[in-house]
From TrEMBL:
InterPro entries: AAA+_ATPase, ABC_transporter-like_ATP-bd, ABC_Transporter_VariousFunc, P-loop_NTPase. It comes from Thalassobacillus hwangdonensis. This is ATP-binding cassette domain-containing protein. SUPFAM superfamilies: P-loop containing nucleoside triphosphate hydrolases (SSF52540). Residues 4-229 form the ABC transporter domain. Keywords: ATP-binding, Nucleotide-binding, Transport. GO terms for molecular function: ATP binding. Pfam families: ABC_tran.
Length: 300
């Protein structure tokens, strides 16, 4: 079943298009990583899916309904970000005790086990937590709520690296025993990659790629070697990025539609072919210039 279906989805803030004609579907019971640079439109997309924002145009269906102000969507969804707030009158353990009222699948026991593991105390208040602890508490709520649609917008803000790893592991373990549709937005794809099934890459409000992690690993290939040979070899291919190593040595990332013959031919010519990680691919795809930061230093 399609949990999210967007067709030509556009969201404007006054005249600025934050989402610019996005078309994609997210299937039930998958973990999708929403990857994009600062200002790419991730939060806008997630908040529109969550029903907080009304799209400017296009179609958006969540659980086959229009999500804006929709009760069915609201009761089947949780949206976690670092701005999530809880009552300043309730202590953290009171929040966990009360959460079952809002989330039908709430696993209180799991919530308290995570609460103890991450070192929270019963008399603490949410607004007195550090940034990283607040994100960790919000993440506990997001996991234990077990909502059919669980949205995490940059959930690891402020978490240190071991807490981030524990969070991803806890999320994956709970997902495997209770599959649901999860969307996680982040800039840090390499940390997330192990738990993701699909990746949706967006840039300037448009979807660039929507592939499984395995497809993403095969999507591009790097060609490196003597500049003249690399340039000749890549001349009629789809170039994704170029990096100048030295004047004599080039590194070019191309779309990987090479066959066996191409691989042999590259070897004969002294050209090296190497894989490109999904994280690097996202960086190349969303880079403002094909040469990335190198272009700032290359004025010729
Ligand atoms: N309330 C707003 N009013 C006007 N423009 C906005 C508003 N919110 C976001 N934008 C613009 O819309 C675009 C997308 O913003 P959005 O916050 O969705 O991106 P993002 O990918 O979540 O960014 P980040 O990774 O930095 O959080 C940006 O250009 C941003 O400046």
């Amino acid at each position: 079943m399609k949990v999210v279906e967007a067709i030509d989805l556009t969201k404007k803030y006054k005249r600025k298009s934050a989402l610019d004609g996005m078309t994609f579907t997210l299937q039930e019971e998958k973990i999708t990583g929403l990857i994009g640079r600062n200002g790419a439109g991730k939060t806008t997309l997630l908040k529109t899916i969550a029903g907080f924002f009304r799209p400017t145009s296009g179609t958006l269906r969540v659980f086959e309904e229009t999500p804006f102000n929709n009760l069915k969507v609201a009761t089947n969804m949780i949206y976690i970000d670092d701005e999530m707030d809880f009552s300043s009158y309730l202590t953290l353990d009171e929040v966990l005790n009360a959460a079952g009222t809002f989330y039908p699948n709430w696993d209180k026991e799991l919530a308290f086990r995570l609460f103890d593991y991450f070192g929270f105390g019963p008399n603490q208040f949410h607004n007195a937590l550090s940034k990283g602890m607040r994100s960790t508490f919000n993440a506990i709520v997001g996991i234990a709520a077990r909502c059919p649609l669980t949205i995490f917008d940059e959930p690891t803000t402020g978490m240190d690296s071991s807490v981030r790893k524990d969070f991803y592991r806890a999320l994956l373990k709970d997902y495997l025993s209770h599959p649901r549709t999860i969307i996680l937005s982040s800039h840090l794809l390499n940390e997330l990659e192990e738990i993701l099934e699909d990746i949706l890459v967006i840039n300037e409000g448009k979807e660039l790629l929507h592939l499984s992690v395995d497809e993403m690993k095969e999507y591009a290939i790097a060609v490196s070697g003597p500049t003249a040979k690399v340039n000749e070899w890549t001349a009629n291919r789809e170039v994704i990025a170029t990096k100048t190593i030295t004047d004599a040595h080039a590194y070019v990332v191309i779309k990987n539609n090479l066959n066996h013959q191409d691989h042999e031919n590259a070897m004969i010519k002294g050209i090296k072919l190497t894989s490109v990680t999904p994280d690097d691919l996202c960086t190349y795809l969303t880079s403002k210039t094909k040469g990335g930061i190198d272009d700032v230093f290359n004025r010729n």
